[in-house]
Amino acid sequence: MSTTVVLETWILFLLRAALFLACRNYLLQNLYHDLQGLSTERSTTPPASDNAEDATELDSLPQPSTANAPATPVPSIMKGKRSFHSVLSRSLFALCFEESCTMFGLLMCQALGLLHGRTRLLNWNISLSVLLTSILVLIPLSYSLVLSDTASSSIGAQARQRPSFGRILLNTIPVCLFLFFLEYIPLPEGLHSSSFIATTLSRLTVLGTIILGGLSGFGAMTAIWTFLPLFGLNKGLPSDEDISIAEQGLERVRQDLARQRYEVQKLQSSQPGSNAGWLSNVVTSVRGDSRLTSATQELRGLEALESQMSQNVEVLKQRQAEAKYAKTMSGKLLNWGGRLFAIYCVYRIIITAIDLVVPLRPRAAPGEANPTGADMISTWLAYSLSLVSSGDIDPEKLAAVSRQISLGLVGVIILSSIRLVLRGVARALKVTSRNLGASLMLLILAQLMGIYLLSTLIQLRTSFPSPPSQPGSEAEDINLFSTLPEYELFGSLFDGSFLLTAGASAVVRWFGDRIGGVSGTI
């Protein structure tokens, strides 16, 4: 390895470290606190005792005052110290962000002819290996660690400690099962390379294509249902009186819920102790268990009712706020932009369904650039941009720009669904801690960011096909895109998952509008 390659690699590693620290210390400040608020949106009544863990990262908030119980003292050594799962999620997100930026930077260096060819190829393989390891091993292992923290989150000191070696070893079991089943994902036909990284990347791309297609379908249907009244249920504007009546009903249910919780606690505390006689224990436990079971079932019913009513109140407030905002100038502009985007989503669904059943364009063979690869609207936008920039229109450049615009619009559709998906995950897992919920969401974002980056690079390969190999070519002549599989191997899979998720989301929202009246929430 030449001195130039070593020097340039060291410079790239220093840039990696700078990106990692900048993302972890600055970029994540606002994002993590936004995720903390998102993890507690539309939550039910708070638990009786505050979680001491949340207080470590929220020192600026006022301490809650209680009438009967004194505040639990927090050791001075723990004040201002982040929990382990918070440090873990921040570090993994920063690592994925840093490697993603590095890979895009290497592609820019290749386009501009910067750095030595061996340097680009070496650091490209390093970034690709680190990103694959993070997506397939480190982040799934962190899921297990964060989710296992929910069981001990009520004990603040234990939740902040680093996990033991035995606990980490136990949490590797789900990761090993995930990797085991990943090996059973069939490789697409036409895959030329059989290296470990190539096959692993292809299997991950199959899984990631399904996930991204599902997010795109869900985001497209969300935009359609939100901005096109033809599809959603046309509801009137809720008045202040409607919201007040709903809040009063919710308050009565919460009072009943508090009384029922107190009754359940009394029944639990009245269970026989170990010093009582055997016969009295049996008689008392049988009688008490039946009452406790009945009270617990009633408590669960009240909790479900309270959750549904709380969700309805939030929907009424949201609809009223959106209606007031829609009357402003910025609201009108946003609605018009949203309607245009929703119309594009309708067109995208229709053209994808037709193209999946009866292909409108010939499928390109592996290794060849797709002649079109974009929808009509993206092609029209690219054509308009080419007219503004210059009079000469190169068909190949026009096709490349149209594919990139189509890819960007798919990214916008995915971003429009991320917030609802993250909120639904936090609700489904019943995460009550703000920090635990934010850490879990940050891990999901890191994994989705890595998967979307790899899928984007694979799709961009059609815009930058590999140069023809020449006799005696060296490593510096290798196009970095040639290390990635062809997108044509995964296009139909994306279209299928996109249509299935869009159809399923439409059915769920239609029934939700007619039955529950809370469409648009998860």
UniProtKB/TrEMBL annotation:
Tagged with keyword Transmembrane helix: yes
Gene Ontology cellular component list: membrane
Pfam families: ABA_GPCR, GPHR_N
Segments forming domain Golgi pH regulator conserved: 195-263
Residue span, Abscisic acid G-protein coupled receptor-like domain: 325-513
Annotated keywords: Membrane, Transmembrane, Transmembrane helix
Location in or out of the cell: Membrane
Membrane-spanning residues: 6-27, 92-114, 126-147, 168-187, 207-228, 333-354, 405-426, 438-458, 489-512
Membrane topology: Multi-pass membrane protein
Top-level lineage group: Eukaryota
Chief location of this protein within or outside the cell: membrane
Stretches the record annotates as Disordered: 42-74
Signal peptide region: none
PANTHER family: G-PROTEIN COUPLED RECEPTOR 89-RELATED, GOLGI PH REGULATOR A-RELATED
Name of this chain's protein: Abscisic acid G-protein coupled receptor-like domain-containing protein
Record organism: Ceriporiopsis subvermispora (strain B) (White-rot fungus)
Lineage, top ranks: Eukaryota, Fungi, Dikarya, Basidiomycota, Agaricomycotina
